[in-house]
Amino acid sequence: MTPARLLLLCLFLVLGGVALWVFGPTPVERLAVLIEERRWPEAEALARSALEDSSGEVRADLYRDLGFALARQERHTEAIEAFQEAFALRPDDPEMRRRAAISMVGVGRQHDARGDSDAAVARYREAVALAPDIPHGHRALVPSLRERGERDEAIAALQVGLRHGPGDVHLRLQLAWLLATHPDPARRDVDRAVDLASDAFLHDRTPETLETMAVALAAKGNFRDAVEHQRSAIELAGGEEAPEFEARQARLEAFEAKRPYLEGVAAGGQGSKRSDTEVSGASRG
Q1: CA-CA distance, 135 to 282, in Å (whole number)?
Q2: Which of 79, 145, 196, 272 could form a disulfide with 176 if both were Cys (CB 3.0 to 4.6 A apart)?
Q3: How far is CA 183 from CA 91, 171, 213, 255, 271, in A?
Q4: In terms of C-beta density within 10 A (0-12 exposed, 13-18 middle, 19 or more buried), how is residue 166 classed?
Q5: How many alpha carbons lie under 13 Å from residue 110 in its C-beta half-sphere?
Q6: pLDDT tens-digit profile of 79-97?
């Protein structure tokens, strides 16, 4: 190879390397691929490495993706820190706030799993305060409050949740149930319970919406329709083979005897505590 050709080859290789460096995928673009492929440890490593050499606006994207990768590895405390860094760099972006709130719920779940309900509720409240426009914090907070026997706190939390997400069927059903079954007549709001249950029923005909409607109608004294809805709920749920059959059947018998269902009140064996899963048919979160 002549010196001239060798020089041209070297120049070509140098220019090609420069072009690759200038026009190749950015760290954020490479992160997007790793996240799409669910390669979380690699995404975390790339984000941390890129943050060492980055500056300006791109750091918000890198912290966001780092938080996402950490959250997917269930390292929620670290994820919160990353999302908060992203939010500090881009405070007008509500997505950063929502991501941090979702990770706060994840931390709360971990506290719940360890039996520390106080710490869990504190985290859920933080998530609600940070991003009240998404359901994650509300849907985690309310069941925890109910499990602790804090019925009125749960009602207040549901009302806050519905102000920010008025179309959330999950929250509507829970509030309807609590308002219809409250053992304190002064706290019971039957008319609103019927309205909430009716609206949910129009959008989502499930055993849970049918039974919530039945409970609300029975609280209002409309036992004939309550019996009809309760029977439909039992049938749609799968009859005697369904996990909640005995509880549903007991409520049906109460309605047939013209008795409403009130939580915590022993009325012919009908009073009991009901879980969020029973009311909504959905798992937490």
Answers
A1: 13
A2: 196
A3: 45, 20, 18, 17, 9
A4: exposed
A5: 13
A6: 889 888 888 888 888 888 8
